Amino acid sequence: MTDDRPGIVDTLSGIVKQHSGNWLESRMSQLSGKFAGIVKVQISKQTADELSTALAELKQQGWIINVEQQDTENETAKANAKLSIVGNDRPGIVKDVAQVLASHAVNVLELNTAFESAAMSAEALFKTKAKVYIPQDKDFQDVADALEQLSNDLMVEIQEI
């Protein structure tokens, strides 16, 4: 994470290229003037330490960097559903949604939330979109129903992918 400015991705990708790394995947975003992300890089064991050292040098420029090395590919759940929620905003809504998902053993793989003003009333709206893994022994509609029980005004949509 660092203060947002042009050239951040260029800097990171340049360091990866300089150390013969292959940029496989990334998730990056700007929020409240900060730029944060996760990058998955494939690199030889011989140059991994050199890459880690080069990335650590960015810390002297105010970057917050965490490097993790993995020898093998971790098995991860693949998203099987898209979740969309819209409702009146209130304190604790993210916690309540997360608690319902956890109680149904739903794994959140990607989560995007936003605070917006409703078009007609200017009321505060909570909006979220997520990619999730719902276990095969769980019914998608049961998860949606449990989320809708959090509030009368909550609109929940779950689509299988």
Q: How would you characterize the overall build of this protein?
A:
The protein is of the alpha+beta class and about 160 residues long. Helix content is about 25%, strand content about 35%. It contains four helices and seven strands. The strands form two sheets. Strands 5-6-4-7 form a four-stranded antiparallel β-sheet, covered by helices on one side. A three-stranded antiparallel β-sheet has the order 1-3-2, covered by helices on one side. Strand 5 (about 105-115) and strand 6 form a beta hairpin. The model has no long low-confidence stretch (mean pLDDT about 90).
Distance between the termini: 31 Å
Taken from the alpha-carbon principal axes, the silhouette is: globular
Write the CATH fold name of the largest domain. Alpha-Beta Plaits
Spatial sequence of strands, sheet with the most strands: 5-6-4-7
Spatial extent as radius of gyration:
20 Å
Rounded average pLDDT: 92
Q: Helix and strand succession?
A: EHEEHEHEEHE
Helix content: 25-40%
Structural class: alpha+beta
CATH 4th-level superfamily of the largest domain: ACT domain
In total, the number of domains comes to 2
Low-confidence segments: none
- What's the number of extended β-strand segments? 7
Percent strand equals 25-35%
Summarize the biggest pleated sheet. 4 strands, antiparallel
Looking at how many chains there are and whether they match, the oligomeric state comes to: single chain
The CATH C-level name of the largest domain is Alpha Beta
